[in-house]
Amino acid sequence: MSFDRRSHPLTQRLALALGAALLVASTAHAAQATQPNEPADVCPVLKHIVDADDFKQLRSQPAAQLPGVSTADDCRANAHTYDCHWRAHWEADGVINDPLEELGADIAACFSNVVHDVNTPTRQHFIVTTAERRVSVTASVQGQNELRLRVTR
Q1: Residue 82 has pLDDT above 80, yes or no
Q2: What is the rounded distance in angstroms from the CA atom of residue 86 to the CA atom of residue 146?
């Protein structure tokens, strides 16, 4: 009995279909693996806010939009105070389970000249010193699932 190396056309089609399905599945898996659900980088936004000469101008600047803040109505501003609130996700994101702790850690990591002087379960307070000024940054819990960021000078 000899073995015929030529495949049946149906077997060839099945093999091609299976190969294409595996390629699609592995591509989808690779895309998911390279795009983890990480929180947005808040440092550029925080630096933009702290460096602002006039907080009133921030309401119309996309570079000052905090992740989770859906509209400019979520923020109030005058020349010396920028005050925003938004609903936070309170599920674990793989790093820190508490969004206030996460925001506090981001604030501490974003600035080289920062002093973290208050750390409670509901309030984080920082003093950021720049070449021009000293800025107070307070992150707090404002109720059920709501965070508040208040920047003053």
Answers
A1: yes
A2: 5
